[in-house]
Amino acid sequence: MSKQTRAAGVLILLCVAVCLLTQGRAAAERHVTAHVLENGLQVLILEKRTVPVVAVQVWYRVGSRHDPEERRGIAHLFEHMMFRGSEKYGPEEHARLINDVGGSSNAYTFFDMTVYHERLPSSELELALELEADRMDRLALTQETLDTEREVVKEEFRGYADDPFFEVLSQALEILYPNHPYGLTPLGRMADLEALSLDDCQAFYESRYAPNNAVLVIVGDTDAANALTLCEKHFGGMTSNRTASPGDLALEPREEIGPHKLRAAIPVRATALAFYVPEANHADTAPLRVLAHILWDGESSRLHTRLVRDRELAVAVLGHHQVVQGPGVFACGAAHLPNISSRKVARALVQELGRLKKEDVTDGELEKARKQLLAAKVFERYTAEGLADGLGFAEVVEGDYRCFEDELDDFRRVNKADIRRVANEYFTDANRVVFFVRPKRSNPLIWLYGVIRSLF
After folding, report:
1. Whole-angstrom Cα distance, residue 423 to residue 181?
2. Neighbouring C-beta atoms of residue 11, cutoff 10 Å
3. Of 137, 256, 373, 409, whose CA is between 20 and 30 Å from 161?
4. What 3-state class would DSSP assign to 288?
């Protein structure tokens, strides 16, 4: 691709981003109708009349961190069981009915929540609400359902057995969050799943799947008043339950910072630094997210420029900012050939983070990172599903749906002083955890390639 062609492509994308930015901001500033039913169900409705489609999402305040001890994995198992039918509808009939009207449905479980979502023609809004209300209140729990879905989840476990990312993530979470609800992936533990009884499932359903433990989000081509009437019709007759305690998210004091040596089915070595950062609704989350783009997003990012291009210590850089209800993690690292020592790469990472504590980022770096982040957020808001995702996350994880309305302005306000401040606050020796990840099986050819590469 020529430089002229690339430049033209970038210009076109920027023009599109500007147009979407205007539309995205307008969407965010539309009035959100917020209402709480008498039984405690929170309802958020946002009208978006661009296409005759509606997104319906039910965000339950139950994720893997709410799994009872010795029953780790039950929240994710329930994500599957919620599609297995009720007193009125048979197994998988929920998904079939949505598909029959041209819609789609799915679900996912994370640390802090389980989300069930549909996208369908706006004329079929009531169908989605009826189906969601039905399984919230009248799920059919049988031993056959438990046995069937337990085998499905066990197969998921086996599918991840050779996934190097999952392998590293599982080991890292146990180290970062010892004896903590975030210390396991949402899949939980195989042994705990084997031990689950039908009584365990019934108790979990009755304590967690209740209107006062859920947020219903509706976005799309609908009238808010009419949608609210339908919510009252299908959910208003339910009774609230006394939900179980959310649990303590405080971290245990740490003494060992590593390096922690891990093994995974990866072709090259990886070295990473992880730092604890605040919860999702903290004021420092926005500066940290901008900083993430500066550090590792793209070939012009700081870490790629310094470690891959200039110093040739790494073949790729990586990073992740985990934003959750409790203590989060900000991690960055590099994949490198075996002839480069992990300690040398770790020192280089520490040096680059140290520069952020002493020197301001450039105007160009800050502006580019903000634009990249804003463009990504605007694209997310372009669809009814993206808007519903943002509203649900803000209400359930950040604690207030209005955080979503303020999000774009929060990113725009981030300045160079904010970046230096958060670097000094969180990138400290005492707050750092170091990981050295090595391949389970060494490859002499990769080692030889690294040696030859270092000579030229």
Report:
1. 27
2. 10
3. 256
4. helix
398-454 tens-digit pLDDT: 999 999 999 999 999 999 999 999 999 999 999 999 999 999 877 554 544 444 455
pTM of the model: 0.90
Pinpoint the alpha helices (H) of 161-270. Answer: 164-176, 190-195, 198-208, 224-235
What is the reported pLDDT for 87? 86
Tens digits of per-residue pLDDT, 116-151? 999 999 999 999 999 999 999 999 999 999 999 999
Element (H, E) at 264: strand 260-264
- Give the number of residues written for the chain: 456
Domains of the chain: 28-235 (3.30.830.10), 260-455 (3.30.830.10)
Would you report the helix, strand and coil content of the chain in percent, each value rounded to 5?
50, 15, 30
In 3D, which of 93, 188, 94, 83 has the Cα closest to residue 141? 83
Would you state the pLDDT for residue 254?
A: 75
Report whether 104 contacts 119 (CB < 8 A). yes
**How far is it, in rounded angstroms, from Cα 115 to Cα 392?**
9
